[in-house]
Amino acid sequence: MNKQVFNYIVCPSVVRADEVSTVRIRPLGENTAFMAGETYTVVIREVQTAHGDYSVFTGVTYELTPDEQGDLVLTHRFAGEQQHVMTITRPEADLRSPHYDITHRTKYRENVTAVLNVYSLRPDLYGLRAFKGEVHCHTYESDGTQDVCHTIGNYRGAGYDFMAITDHYISMSSEKSMRLYADAPVDMTLMLGEEVHMPTEHIHIVHLGGRESVNAYFRARKEEVRAEVDEIKKTLNLPEGVSVEDYAWRIWIANKSHEFGGLSILAHPHWIWNDVYFMGEATTMQLLRDGVHDALDLCDSDLDTSVALWNEMRLQGARIPVVASTDSHYTDANDPQRPAIGGYTIVFAPDRQPASIMQAVRDEKSLAVFNHCKPEAIHGPYRLVKFARFLLDHYYPVYVRLCHGQGVLMADWPLDADEMQALATLNRRSEAFAKEFYGY
Question: Which of 356, 372, 413, 427 is deepest in the core (most CB within 10 A)?
Fold first, then answer.
């Protein structure tokens, strides 16, 4: 994380690649304010540009004076899709405090220079925002320990933009969350979700974002569904080690999820259950080859094996979008940065509507991020990982802090009129920061 994000905002911090853009550098405190009439040196360097002499890092230099708002404003052509480093050096006159002769205090160390950053994007990514989400978690309405409101609130407090509760066998807890917060003045998308188990608990598949429950559909029409699965079985020609029965059920579940407008996510294939993988390896690999599910959940509990499998299958030509989740059964309100240990999903989409979120996953504009280490580990397409690393360092530290108060209020739902007004105010602040940061 770049701690200077709490001292300055660069707006926008995201610009169009290979175009001239105007960027405003705004100090956020008295200690970092620019002095009127003084000249500041700003050097811009491109992170990906090769340097022949590493003892001298060349860049483009600007000499700037603050405008009437006290900001530094520059116009620059940001070349290529990459991160650009801006180093601001203060003049000697600005290093002395107003009471220097009495206290001999200066703006030494972190305030002498500031290192800030801009990211330039090619047209297909420019205009998309990163949205952080949870696609697999539980409440006490299945085998979790918390209610819907505390679960939702704790995730929002950690800067989550979308989520679905995916309790075992049921979608009603996710539907409850959507109903409770339908009129909440907060920019958080709640989606229908469930962990699908049919015909037995041996099958674990996450259904995300559909219009109705796949589990409930099966319970209401068991014989009809079994007949449909039998018809699927007749069409299959599977390699040794893959159960025709098991595979046919997975195809039916994925198809029904799609029919309802949702995603089908392959959950934790390397989870150890009764001392063995709960899914046979041959089945997992065949599902990925055939693209039965829309995405693979790189679950934290089996991260190494899942990532290795994902990479190997892609080398074999399989197209596999990825997501990540905590599969949480408890969230910790005492850690506002991390409601649960594990993974989360970042999607790049034009907005946070359910259809946009799901389409981003289908289009492989999603990443799996893991919070068990610092810096957080990111898996996904190379150019998206680079952009996400920039966002984790320069965007999310501020955004998460602005969301924390919203989460505290949402966990205490329902709210009175004053609390609702406070939630709306806090939400406007986080959204205003996001719009300034992206510029759209």
Answer: 427
